[in-house]
Design goal:
Order of helices and strands of chain A: HHHHHHHHHHHH
Strand content of chain B: under 5%
Structural class of chain B: mainly alpha
Radius of gyration of chain A: 20 Å
Number of helices of chain A: 12
CATH architecture of one domain in chain B: Up-down Bundle
Largest interface: A-B, 91 and 71 residues
Number of helices of chain B: 3
Number of domains of chain A: 1
Mean pLDDT of chain A: 86
Oligomer: heterodimer
Helix content of chain B: 55-70%
Structural class of chain A: mainly alpha
Number of strands of chain B: 0
Helix content of chain A: 55-70%
């Protein structure tokens, strides 16, 4: 089977890597464009509305129109803002969101994947950098809404990162490796969602909070904080914060697919198609939750992570470890 | 060779930086207007003139949560190598980790009792 680490480094293989990385970037951008379209469309249908239907057939070009609009909008940088930090924050938030896609095994050929032996740890470590971009953006704006939104985002993201990390330990324990390719190979007989059902539930809940999505969208609570940490951002800098959010939605769905739903493995259909189906199902679930759930209360939010999710995740770990011994 | 994987990841860093650089710093300025006025550059505060500075003191609870996060995140990182080697460690590994987790659970219960986890 093809792996980058077993291929000698020549000019040709380097070119192959560049093409692979560019393809992943294009896939990520395409996924984000259509995730936004389908989110609006699905939520529209769930609320008995039509959703976007003006730009192109069925409104299919709506997201392109939005991107174009953001690109030609004036880039307002407030006088009181910390200029350098204000300019840097969206970039600091975006780069890790794209970097984590490097370790996701998209198909049975590993052209688009770095078969890192510390894949899972790499994902958690790199995705944590985004919190820095969010806090920096909130602080540099020198705006009260932004600062409070940024601090809330940070507190929420670090609190829910622990149950997220703990819920994955069960999967690592069962497969005995942090390498995502090995984890997928271990699920040939049975998806890890079955022995790790508690871990999966914790993972999805913590993942929703990491993404700042409903019901955990307090940092962006429109009714009290205008737009949260990106209140002062306009034009394409704002677009990069949105891009980050949706790339993470894609990355997290891909991670859930890889760790719990058997990754690209499946009968009859080609492996990449299985990956697309499973990832799309997880992303659809995220939209569904947004249309269904109300927003949580601030005091419930933090205590839920520490008093419910972390004990449950630790219990799941002990249960998995105990059952593995038997 | 293992280094190929990291070259691949380095390409992701370069591309991830190139996209914002290209759109924000190179293509963007050609497309977007730039007519700053005094009102436009004012800090947004729901249409009113901003009162004071935004960098005020905020709730100390954020600091407590950051400390809790530090302890538990390190715990999580310690759990990964344990989980990878678990099939070789057997009952010994299970007992060792049980002791470790109980110690941290005591910490969590202590914080719980001291009402660190309440958000008021």
């Amino acid at each position: 089977m093809f792996h980058w680490e077993s291929t000698p480094l020549t000019g040709l293989s380097f070119l192959g890597m560049v093409i692979g990385a560019v393809v992943v970037l294009l896939i990520a951008l395409a996924v984000v464009t259509y995730a936004i379209y389908f989110e609006r469309k699905f939520i529209g249908w769930m609320q008995l509305r039509i959703g976007p239907n003006r730009v192109g057939p069925f409104g299919l070009f709506q997201s392109f129109a939005d991107i174009l609009k953001l690109l030609i909008k004036e880039d307002v940088i407030p006088d009181k803002a910390d200029r350098i930090m204000f300019l840097l924050a969206p970039v600091i938030a975006f780069v890790p969101s794209f970097m984590v896609l490097a370790v996701i095994p998209f198909s049975s050929t590993h052209v688009f994947t770095a078969g890192l032996n510390v894949g899972v740890l790499y994902y958690l470590a790199i995705s944590a950098i985004t919190i820095l971009g969010v806090v920096l953006g909130g602080w540099a704006s020198n705006n009260k809404y932004s600062l409070i939104g940024g601090m809330r985002s940070a507190a929420q993201m670090i609190s829910y990162e622990i149950p997220l990390g703990l819920s994955i330990v069960g999967v690592v324990l069962l497969s005995g490796s942090l390498n995502m390719n090995v984890i997928v190979a271990h699920q040939a007989k049975m998806w890890f969602i079955i022995p790790q059902i508690i871990g999966f539930v914790v993972f999805i809940i913590a993942g929703l909070a990491e993404l700042n999505r409903t019901p955990f969208d307090l940092p962006e609570a429109e009714s009290e904080l205008v737009a949260g940490y990106h209140t002062e951002y306009s034009g394409f800098r704002f677009a990069f914060f949105m891009l980050t959010e949706y790339v993470y939605a894609f990355a997290l769905a891909a991670l859930a697919t890889t760790l719990f739903l058997g990754g690209w493995s499946g009968p009859f259909l080609p492996s990449w198609l299985w990956f697309v189906i499973k990832t799309a199902a997880v992303i659809f679930f995220l939209f569904w939750v947004r249309a269904t759930m109300p927003r949580m209360r601030g005091d419930q939010l933090m205590s839920f992570a520490w008093k419910v999710l972390i004990p449950v995740a630790l219990f799941n770990l002990l249960l998995t470890g105990g059952l593995y011994l038997l | 060779m293992y280094s190929q994987d990291f070259i691949f990841i380095l390409l992701f860093v370069v591309l991830g930086l190139a996209l914002p650089m290209a759109t924000l710093a190179m293509i963007g300025p050609l497309l977007r207007p730039k007519h700053p006025t005094k009102e436009k550059l004012k800090t947004y505060e729901s249409g009113l003139d901003p009162v004071g500075d935004a960098r005020v003191r905020y709730n100390v609870r954020y600091y407590l949560f950051a400390l809790m996060f530090l302890a538990f995140d390190v715990e999580t990182v310690f759990l990964y190598p344990w989980a990878v080697e678990y099939h070789n460690l057997g009952l010994y590994g299970f007992t060792e980790m049980l002791i470790f987790l109980v110690l941290l659970a005591i910490g969590l219960v202590y914080a719980w009792r001291k009402k660190v986890l309440e958000w008021k």
